[in-house]
Design goal:
Layout: E1 2-15, E2 18-24, E3 37-41, E4 51-58, E5 62-68, H1 72-78, E6 85-92, E7 106-112, H2 117-128, E8 132-139, H3 148-152, E9 156-161, E10 168-169, E11 183-187, H4 190-199, E12 206-209, H5 233-236, E13 239-241
Parallel strand pairs: 7-8, 7-11, 8-9, 9-10, 11-12
Antiparallel strand pairs: 1-2, 1-6, 2-5, 3-4, 3-6, 4-5, 12-13
Length: 247
């Protein structure tokens, strides 16, 4: 973990209120696991708390963040220009691991909304590991869909939208019976994670990445305690085995 000013290589809107920001700096060389996140200090001095943003892709000398505008901080981020620098703490948290998988194993990766973002790097790593990956991705509607083509390059994609404007109509639950995986990885809103947790209770390897507000990012403030107050999402997670957390 380190603090560094990362330089913005690009920052653009790729779907409705969804932005892709590419950063470069020495910190990228220490990013080695999908599911980890960065903690960004906003350039606006009135916005005191850092914002946790999942790492969506790790490349040779850059990393990519995908974020949705949900408040003043992310709105501020959307105005950053190429060549600007971002005060960054990271990489933080424990990400996905899959050393138990064998080549050719069938894996299901499930995401919803902005929770789809960290699953792209995970998908790249699983494919490199020789696994066959089915992605089940849920969005509110067609305008909210992002990285569909990128995921298609990695494996089978089952797309779901709440209003049926693209793919299957409904949340990701409408597609779960189409796969019979060895392991499941998921990220998204709590109802999605709760559904995955209960639907795959027969599987040992089910891992959930929690989306929480993280004030300090290092476990010092106890602001992101899990429901049972026995774990901190930023320090012990954000990825947990399904039996570890009550949702």
């Amino acid at each position: 973990m380190q603090v560094e000013l990362l330089e913005i290589v690009s920052n653009k809107e790729i779907a409705h209120n969804i932005y892709e920001m590419v950063l470069k700096g020495e910190m990228v060389s220490s990013m080695n696991r999908s599911g980890q996140f960065l903690h960004l200090r906003m350039n606006d001095p009135n916005l005191l708390l850092r914002r946790p943003i999942s790492i969506a892709s790790i490349d040779e000398d850059t990393c990519t963040l995908l974020y949705r505008i949900v408040g003043k901080g992310t709105k501020d981020m959307s105005r950053y220009q190429v060549g600007d620098f971002v005060d960054t703490l990271g990489p933080l948290g424990n990400g996905f691991h899959f050393d138990f998988l064998s080549e050719e194993d069938q894996v299901c990766v499930i995401g919803g909304g902005i929770g789809v973002a960290p699953l792209y790097e995970l998908g790249k790593e699983l494919v490199a590991n020789g696994n066959h990956v089915t992605f089940i991705l849920g969005f509110a509607n067609q305008d909210d869909i992002y990285y569909y083509e990128q995921f298609q390059e990695l494996g089978k994609v089952i797309l779901c939208t709440d209003d049926g404007s693209a793919g299957l109509q409904g949340h990701v639950g409408v597609a779960l019976d189409q796969v019979d995986p060895t392991a499941v990885f998921a990220c998204g809103p709590t109802p999605l994670l709760r559904l995955v947790q209960s639907s795959y209770s027969h599987l040992e390897h089910v891992y959930l990445s929690l989306e929480e507000r993280m004030a300090c990012g290092i476990g010092a403030c106890y602001g992101c305690d899990t429901k049972k107050k026995d774990k901190r999402t930023c320090k012990d997670g954000p990825v947990f085995q399904r039996k570890e957390v009550v949702l």
